[in-house]
Amino acid sequence: MNAIEVEQLRKTYVSHKKAPGVWGGIRSLFSREKNEVEAVKDISFSIGQGEMVGFLGPNGAGKTTTLKMLSGILFPTSGTARVLGYTPSDRKPSMLRKISLVMGNKMQLWWDLPAMDSFLVLKELYEVEDSAFKKRSEFLIETLSLADKVNTQVRKLSLGERMKCELVAALLHSPQIVFLDEPTIGLDVVSQKRIRDFLKELHREDNCTILLTSHYMQDVEELCERVIVIDRGALIYEGTLDSLTRQFSPMRRLQFTFGECPAAEALAKYGKVVESDECSAVVEVERDKVPAVAAAILTRFAVEDVSIGDVDIEEVVRDLFTQRGA
Ligand SMILES: Nc1ncnc2c1ncn2[C@@H]1O[C@H](COP(=O)(O)OP(=O)(O)O)[C@@H](O)[C@H]1O
Ligand SMILES: [Mg+2]
Predict the structure, then answer these.
(1) Keywords, A to Z (predicted)?
(2) CB-CB contact of 324 with 236 (8 Å)
(3) Do 313 and 319 contact (CB within 8 A), yes or no?
(4) Within this chain, do residues 199 and 259 fall inside the same structural domain, yes or no?
(5) Which CATH number characterizes residue 291's domain?
(6) Which domain, by its residues, includes 42?
(7) Pocket probe mutation, ligand 1, options 12, 13, 229, max atoms within 8 Å of Cβ
(8) pLDDT tens readout for residues 170-202
(9) pLDDT < 70 regions, the chain
């Protein structure tokens, strides 16, 4: 059985237009002029047990809406979602004990209490046994290097430390499925990396299923083998990051350092020169022409060093969305 099965899932937010003022409010009770936002439009996908999948899309694409439907916070307009065989919107306690949703922009810890106090409340809520709680909290606190932070009032912690405490809180009950919505948003690069490393460790240790959205392509690049991409509510790609790059960016970049500097015009014959200074240059060529072009340049010029790189994945994804937006 797949951990997550989504079929033709759709969410349309409906709100009623309200004219300003008291009379507007009263009038709208009768006129009911509707405002509809199709946040998620019939998306289908499945995720196997133990997979860690990246969920990508620009702002407003419908990622958070989808994660909320999968964790039972929102009722779908139509279509079906199955999570570990459950229908999430039923909110069965046995399902809620097996999943977790972490939102980078929403805190569930009590602001004025030390994080440990919140952990103990969650322990009771999820009915975690004393010995299991001890083992689990020690593992999480250790892996996130939080030992000297969990007894400090949450409000006094840095944003990164708070996020790490949020992760502990969300994972104390050892969920089989973890939905992570922008867990690294707003964090400095060092904290981002700590959280990435932690997620790797968690995935290895628990073998849990993880669906991760992030603004930072590096998170997805390092953690996820497979990605699902949505744009304006519709699924536009599903597969490896590698073939996403292949499919949407046919170009590769050859980077040369020369012993003797060639003229820029001489290089331009071989491809698009995207960068050049004193004695180095970057030439962009189509993927399947790479061997021939590299060989030709190596033969013709005094090359000291050459490397072949992909076009930056961040750029590929950005281009993909801008192209579609146009
Ligand atoms: N509660 C809501 N009521 C009305 N529209 C909403 C609500 N929540 C989100 N939306 C709209 O639904 C769309 C998808 O939003 P969201 O799922 O938050 O996207 P993402 O997480 O990919 O940025 C956006 O157009 C957003 O403005
Ligand atoms: Mg979102």
Answers:
(1) ATP-binding, Nucleotide-binding, Transport
(2) yes
(3) no
(4) no
(5) 3.30.70.1150
(6) 4-245
(7) 13
(8) 999 999 999 999 999 888 889 999 999 999 999
(9) 18-19, 28-32, 310-313, 325-326
